[in-house]
Design brief:
single chain, about 300 residues, alpha/beta, Metallo-beta-lactamase, Chain A, six-stranded mixed sheet, five-stranded mixed sheet, 7 helices, disordered N terminus
Length: about 300
């Protein structure tokens, strides 16, 4: 096994003992959402996007992020953000970062060539914009790798919007590499809505979850229609770096190379058709180009 074929260590790191998640119940999905609360001071047609710093990943070798060897032996820093979307009909958290528990480890955590760190807690950032975890109506994930689910258990009073294929894959035995079911175990007792296709979160076309499998079986991206900034698409892990987008590089650990390339095509066509701004979530330059929190796009 060459260096670039290994699964990145951060995906295998579990801060606490990992408990296997129970498979979701069969039959009709549970839909018991709380009545969404109107976000204060928003105009009727306004949506706000806040970009929150939810961690940093420093890889000594980025090799696993291309199955054709371009990154072998090259170090790379990645951002691990969370996003808050405020809409008149409620608040959505998109991705949950590495987890506030990493902030307890002064200077971060080193593990076999990967350094994981959190400099500011998600709960403190929510407080800065007048929110608590209980004030978040919906939680959704681009996918269920641990760097996207780290704070999920803070949101036990939210409704979880979960992709059916993704939760089935993440709940399998043995647990897939990169998944830590303990980080989203609250899902089992929380309100939930299982989605299978593209999903309109608030029912007015302004906040859309779009299918983009390949990285994982139920991977998704988020499309926002903002009044001033126009259409913005958050990448999930469709790409991990700007070069990966430019050269259509596929990580060695992706679930399906064919699906990855097919949904790169789909999302890039949407970007072109809608003249969208595309944000690569793990690219520090793309993250830094967004308004510095607590400022926002709208």
């Amino acid at each position: 096994m060459t260096v670039w074929q290994r699964v990145p260590v951060w995906m295998l790191f579990a801060f606490a003992a990992c408990a296997s998640a129970a498979a979701p119940p069969s039959g009709k999905a549970i839909v018991s959402a709380p009545q969404p609360k109107a976000a204060d001071t928003l105009a009727a047609d306004e949506v706000r996007l806040y970009a929150l710093d939810c961690g940093r990943i420093d890889e000594s070798s980025f090799g696993g992020y291309s199955d054709t060897g371009e990154y072998d032996g090259r170090p790379r820093t990645m951002s691990a953000p969370c996003f808050v979307i405020r809409h008149r009909r409620g608040v959505l958290l998109w991705d949950a970062g590495l987890g506030d528990r990493y902030a307890d480890a002064k200077g971060g955590v080193d593990e076999a060539g990967t350094h994981l760190s959190v400099s500011v807690r998600l709960v403190d950032q929510l407080q800065a914009i007048g929110l608590t975890p209980a004030g978040v109506d919906f939680v959704a994930f681009s996918h269920l790798h641990a760097d996207h689910t780290g704070n999920a258990n803070l949101f036990g009073r939210s409704t979880f919007l979960m992709n059916a294929k993704e939760i089935a894959w993440a709940s399998a035995t043995p647990t897939p590499a990169g998944v830590d079911p303990a980080t989203f175990s609250v899902y089992e007792s929380a309100n939930k809505q299982v989605i299978e296709r593209d999903h309109d979160v608030f029912g007015d076309g302004r906040v859309l979850i779009l299918r983009a499998p390949g990285h994982t079986p139920g991977h998704q991206v988020l499309l926002l229609r903002l009044k001033k900034a126009g259409v913005v698409i958050l990448s999930g892990d469709l790409y991990h770096a700007r070069e990966s987008r430019q050269f259509r590089r596929v990580p060695a650990f992706n679930d399906s190379r064919a699906d990855t390339l097919a949904y790169m095509d789909r999302i890039e066509t949407i970007v072109g058709n809608l003249h969208a701004r595309f944000v690569i979530q793990h690219d520090p330059a793309d993250f830094a180009a967004l308004p510095k929190f607590p400022a926002y796009l709208n």
